[in-house]
Amino acid sequence: MVSQTLSAGQNLELEKRPLLTVKNVSKRFGSFYALQNISLTVPEKTIALLIGPNGSGKTTLINCISGVYWPDEGQILFDGKDITEMHVHDIVKLGLVRSFQVPAPFKKMTVAENLLVCGQDNPGENFVSSLNRSRWRASEKESVDKMFKVLKTVGLEDKVDTLAGELSGGQLKLLELGRLLMLNPKMMLLDEPIGGVNPVLANSILSHIINIRNEFGTSFLIVEHRLDIVMKYVDYVYVLSKGNLIASGTPSEIVERRELYDVYLA
Asked: How far is it, in rounded angstroms, from Cα 223 to Cα 58?
């Protein structure tokens, strides 16, 4: 059964160009292995799900991929580049961005302002370039146009002038997606994007993730516990337990695997 699942994973990798590749990654804290020899691949334009019980190493893996931690062993490749020991800001510039479990917008700024502040490479931020008014004005217009496109994509176009501090928990999750989109990502790492959100809005958030994948070509690696909701929205699933990758496959394959029930019922 394991070989069949891995074969399915290999077929997935052959269908699309690999965007993220994690090779034999391990992470220790003292003598404790939070991750042991983890290998996985997320192709371009793919939504992958990372699941497992609390303490299985999911967030640690996301932290290693995003540059918060550096792995003790192994290699991480993104879009053909070795990012194993890159700093967070350099990884973001390559197009790999992440969210955290609790959104942290600028609460006293409007939704529009929260998105615009995430724009990159504005010539107005450079002293010399800022002297060329026509150049930075054009850039400002592009940023505003993009902001409205992003707001429509995440379903917050009617909240453009609303303070972030006045949004609901679910709307904050959507704002977080919008802020990430302003960074021109090739891939998003999302840590519990529907955590604490009612089922109706949770399905709406996941539908917006599908729209982002389809419209912008963005790939996703999502950590989520609410399997009853999220499974039908993803292309591929990786299962962690006690720092080990114990299973991988399509959602339909994973729900048939005994290992999934063993780790959650243990």
From this structure: 7
Give the long-range contacts of residues 226-230, CB within 8 A, separation 24 or more. 226/194, 226/195, 226/202, 227/51, 229/194, 229/199, 229/202, 229/203, 230/49, 230/194, 230/206
Domain end point (choices 134, 164, 184): 184
User: What is the rounded CA–CA span in Å between residue 139 and residue 123?
Assistant: 7
Residues 205 and 249 in one domain: yes
pTM: 0.86
Give pLDDT tens digits for 106-137.
999 999 999 998 876 655 565 555 566 666 66
Does residue 203 fall inside a structural domain? Answer: yes
User: For 28-85, how does the pLDDT look when each residue is reduced to its tens digit (9 = 90+)?
Assistant: 999 999 999 999 999 999 999 999 999 999 999 999 999 999 999 999 999 999 999 9
Residues 80 and 195 in one domain: yes
- 252 is a domain residue: yes
Range of the domain at 57: 2-95+186-265
How many domains, in total, are found in the chain?
A: 2
Confidence at residue 266, expressed as pLDDT on a 0 to 100 scale? 59
